[in-house]
């Protein structure tokens, strides 16, 4: 007899088989056991008896190519016993895919860790088969491909006419590089799609892309988006007609951190790129975080030989660190 589970408000998808001599349960949780656990042991011929009871808790989502685990326990007359259980996935075409065969512990529940096969996304039936008993436990699980994607560009700011050079790193949920198809899209500051390319990552999980920028375009924040199956990632880049400064300005403080009751002291230095000291007025603005950044003090003065020492009052209070 096979019974399929239904979703409960507790977000547990549970199958409960009750009859005169045997009962069992497969639950679907959000990953991870809620019970103290040990790694499941190897099967060495442990067979189920007619009066055994089973508790099996499995995640409702499995990530293709990643790792997952199932928490399980077997009981005889209310006491934990060692029993062998085989787990399989069955697709819509009734093809059976073996996951793992492991044993529960006499000391209590155990965790069966396994690698999810690299299968297509969709719904599958997770089946638990206790050795020596003709009845199985089943639950519907969702297999998805949700590999992390990391986008990197050669710089954060571009001028019109330059080329955006980027690359994408594709990993599975165990942070191992994977080969897969990736779609790269770039939208401009007005949200208009200006670039789209279908790519495939290599054996190191890496794929590169290049996009030349026109001389006349929408300036502002652009977005680079990468999609692969259910995975998506994005980064922002700036496109602007920026001009390199003619001199360099730096600010240093006596310490890297200050208490909220400490006065903040430091030095502002300004030098032309060819080495000469900058002369002029400096304005130092200080802000503190109180859920949002707010300015609480300013300091102004004239540079002398390219530097100015400043002193700001204590912050007094701030939110966070």
Describe this structure in words.
The chain is mainly beta. It folds into three domains: 6-144, Macroglobulin (MG2) domain (Immunoglobulin-like); 149-239, Sandwich (Immunoglobulin-like); 247-312, Immunoglobulin-like, CATH 2.60.40.1940. It is 0% helix and 53% strand. The strands form six sheets. Strands 1, 2, 3, 4, 6, 7 and 10 form a seven-stranded mixed sheet that branches. Strand 8 and strand 9 form a beta hairpin. Mean pLDDT is 83; it is low at 1-25 and 30-37.
SSE topology sketch:
Layout: E1 6-7, E2 13-18, E3 23-29, E4 53-59, E5 61-63, E6 67-76, E7 79-80, E8 84-90, E9 96-103, E10 110-115, E11 122-130, E12 137-144, E13 149-153, E14 157-158, E15 163-170, E16 181-187, E17 193-200, E18 206-212, E19 220-228, E20 231-239, E21 247-253, E22 264-272, E23 281-289, E24 293-302, E25 307-312
Parallel strand pairs: 3-4, 5-12, 14-20
Antiparallel strand pairs: 1-2, 2-3, 4-6, 6-7, 6-10, 8-9, 8-11, 11-12, 13-15, 15-18, 16-17, 16-19, 19-20, 21-22, 22-25, 23-24
